[in-house]
Specification:
By secondary structure, the protein is mainly alpha-helical. It has helices at 24-46, 67-74, 91-94, 120-128, 145-148, and strands spanning 55-58, 98-101. It has a two-stranded antiparallel ribbon.
């Protein structure tokens, strides 16, 4: 588990990353985050853990309100083509990157339209590591290991996610 402070405020990219993007300090901070993830992946490779480590890169929410000035100043849309920000019900507020790397298990470059919630990490990692969960553990956690592996399914594993907005 490696929780980065970015892209949360304060937006403080290290000196070596300032000016590296075309989206101001926030963009530079994201460039630094990308570099840091590269360092983690390199360390896994250097230490021989690259092929037996599940790497999941995700975020806890969509962009903050300062995404709007970034759009005006840099034409950079943190939420992509989705509407909304953190703390509201629009998809831009809660649809986030979710990237999984597990060589030999998760097909590189594969994509899924499956609804996944971070609560699903508990059951999914338990399945990948052959850990038996007790009946009352993670009752809101769905095993997404087949989705990660790209195995077809006749119906969605999870049909909905309940989202709580600020108000």
């Amino acid at each position: 588990y490696f929780a980065l402070p970015s892209p949360h405020a304060p937006i403080i990219p290290d000196q070596q990353f300032i000016g590296k993007s075309e989206a101001g300090g926030f963009g530079d901070y994201v460039v630094q985050t990308d570099w840091m993830i590269g360092q983690v992946l390199e360390a896994l490779k250097w230490n021989g853990y690259e092929k037996n480590t599940i790497v999941i890169f995700t975020s806890d929410n969509g962009p903050e309100t300062y995404a709007y000035p970034r759009i005006e100043k840099f034409n950079h849309y943190s939420m992509g083509n989705l509407r909304g920000l953190k703390r509201d019900l629009w998809e831009g507020g809660h649809r986030v990157p979710f990237i999984v790397r597990y060589p030999g298990v998760v097909p590189a470059g594969s994509e899924s339209d499956e609804i996944i919630c971070q609560t699903d990490l508990m059951a999914t990692i338990a399945a990948f590591t052959d850990i038996k969960m007790s009946k009352n553990a993670g009752e809101d956690s769905f095993n997404m290991s087949k989705v990660f592996k790209g195995e077809p399914s006749e119906k969605p594993v999870r049909e909905y996610v309940i989202h709580h907005a600020m108000n």
